[in-house]
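REQUEST
  id: r-88c1
  op: predict_structure
  target: Lipoprotein
  payload:
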Amino acid sequence: MVNENAMQSRSLLFMAVAAISLATACSSVRQTRPLAYGGEDSGSTIAPLQAVLKKRGYTPVCSAEEFCKFQQNPDVTIHFKVKGDDKVVLAIDVSKKVPENKRQALTDSAMKLGEEIFAEASITATANEKAQAEARRAEAEREAREAQNKPAAKEDKGGGFLGALSAATDVLGAVNASTSVTTTGGSSGGAGKPSAGGTSGGAQGGSGGGQTTCCINKAFYDCPSSAAVYKCSGEFMACVSKCGFGGDFKCTDACMKDHPPDPSQCTRDSSRDATCT
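RESPONSE
  id: r-88c1
  status: 200
  body:
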């Protein structure tokens, strides 16, 4: 209902303007002059034109972003009509009641006044457009910053030790899920997590007393000592654990490069590969 009323009001306004224009055309002489607008949209000058006219004491009749008109005096009416994005047409109507030899002087005076008013309104219009453009740019930059910060915020699992523990566990869990290397050791009884790049390790008791073993990519190795098991995979897992708990959750590649699993001190035993999990 509100929209219908608005449309009816707008239609009545156009009908009234059309009737006035028709009556004016029959009773006045018109001259026009195009005025260039230096901003983005000449329609943005209408609201400032209305404000300038009211400030000068006139009673304008305007339609948003389309036209504005006012009476300079009973014999002269000045119109501003939007024409495209970069132009406004200034039209001067002088009553036919004015003697013909005086009409041009009134027209020239009205043209000068219209140009002054348009120039004043254009300053406001371009300033408004610039402010709106700056606001849009600032909003776009804010959204870009928020988009950049979202991944970091998503990784944040809380502060302090519990936050670091949770994040480090996630890293090692992801490595374990994507690799198939397990390292085992006897007397030490320790267990290691898998490495990056398809390598993981852990330690478990061997079949013989005090014997230590190591599995790398489901390849079984007999190791002569706990030190050999540590070199086989323990050193790598210590690196991953240390940097993970330190807050660097993307360090597995560096650990693989600096502390790679090394079974060189152990003996390969393919017959026991099935024991590697």
